[in-house]
Amino acid sequence: MNKNQIIQTTIEGMKEITQYDFAVMDREGSVLAQTFRDANKLSVQSHQFAETSSECISEDGHLFLRVLEKGETEFVVVVMGRGDHAEEIGRILVFHMKELMEANNERFDRDNFIKNLLLDNLLLVDIYNRAKKLHIESEAKRVVIVVENPKERKGDELEKVKTVLSANTKDFVTAVDESNIIVVKDLTEPGAEESIQKTAEEILNALDNKTRVAYGTTVNELKDVSKSYKEATMALDVGKIFFKEKNIIAYSVLGIGRLIYQLPIPLCKMFIQEIFDKKSPEDFDEETLTTINKFFENSLNVSETSRQLYIHRNTLVYRLDKIQKMTGLDLRIFDDAITFKIALMVVEYMDYMESQDNTF
Description:
By secondary structure, this protein is α+β, with helices and mostly antiparallel strands. The chain has helices spanning about 5-20, 45-50, 85-120, 125-135, 155-165, 195-205, 225-240, 255-260, 265-275, 285-295, 300-310, 315-325, 335-360; strands at about 20-25, 30-35, 55-60, 60-70, 70-80, 140-150, 170-175, 180-185, 215, 220, 250. The two termini are about 35 Å apart.
């Protein structure tokens, strides 16, 4: 719910209790919320009143009251009516508006703090001092979940994710850019650490399974939240390269893909040239690539691979011999198979990085 919706709900509740009509305007006289028609006709009067030092004035059957923040007018409350009772009700609404502002400011301060925490923009002493002021526990189990937010999506994905996490007031949902939504998930409740995958699934379902979700490792202190965030963002990227079939990926299962992702591209090119000389796995025909992938899937088992490919064992052996002649690597030998598998992953990584460069 945004600020205007909260104000609208508040004054509607006040009307139901008091039977008075209200409007709330900003200092420029723009109507933010109202319970009666044509409140905009009072815009000029509201703006003029906001520039004065008066706490309350009555004009044309309407009562105007200022809501102050740091001595400056933030809102103008309009009560349709006059007299002591109307003023008393108006002051109650002004008080309530101040409470809403303070709560909103605290939420903003918390959000700003979490963003800077994620981006590693805070000194250690600042983390603990600000956390104390914002009533955020410094020592608690947490994990960072990153939700990809593609630009083509038009809905309010952030609010949908907040809805999923609404049961735990210690969770934080924010965004440091337009690409991703970030969840700092509290894990202090019993069994919460085991339910990270379930939480990721619930977020994915809320977004119609049309995105990717990744999460880092659990940390025990607030200062380490940025570490979990970096792990989650890496998991999201590595997942796109090596785990295309998965919508949810954990940093802990990235395996060798995590190492390859951190290699510089020049080193990758040098490695591929050494392994394949002037050839590349991309030059292999579809039949050869299918054979290679199926052979790896079956842990280099010739009999099982030939069975799943519906070919004779000798045909598979012929294909493997052909690959050996092309690359100098015999996939039936463990060391050669490992080298070939890593090379395939390196090529996937290089292709992905090239596609990213072309995007910008």
